[in-house]
Design a protein that fits this description.
Length: 140
């Protein structure tokens, strides 16, 4: 099944990779959170303490495992690209811990995109900066 011409495939390779690699993961994550949250709500309404404890643990486990998965991806990227990331080592490590939270913002954006007509609009840039110009500035 061809979605793109060869030229469009090259232009949209990152988009295809994103859909094939991350989409199933966040869909399973959302399904797990939804099902476990439904059990959590039921346990709260019915006053079932054992189910409440299990559902709370399941929601926490889902969030924690997704965070650790994204953290591992960020750690692997940080290790392989350490020299190419232009900032102080302490910032690199700080960004490593905030990377999963940043990626989690993709989920609500994707949900909204399912129900709204989203169109790409180009951003007009008024000036350009080269990599050499960026590296001339002191690293803070």
């Amino acid at each position: 099944m061809n979605f793109f011409t060869p030229a469009e495939f090259v232009e949209n390779y990152a988009l295809i990779g994103e859909k094939k690699s991350n989409a199933p993961v966040w869909k399973l994550f959302l399904l797990g959170i939804f099902v476990n949250s439904a059990f959590l709500g039921y346990a709260l309404l019915e006053g079932k303490l054992r189910l409440l404890a299990a559902a709370t643990q399941a929601v926490a486990w889902s969030l924690g495992s997704y965070y650790l998965t994204l953290f591992s991806v960020g750690l692997l990227t940080l290790i392989t690209e350490w020299r190419q990331i232009s900032c102080r080592p302490i910032k690199k490590l700080l960004y490593l811990f905030t990377f999963p939270i940043f990626i989690l913002t993709y989920i609500p954006i994707s949900i909204v995109a399912l129900f709204r007509n989203v169109e790409w609009t180009p951003i007009v840039h008024s000036f350009s900066v080269s990599l050499q110009d960026i590296r001339k500035e002191p690293i803070q």
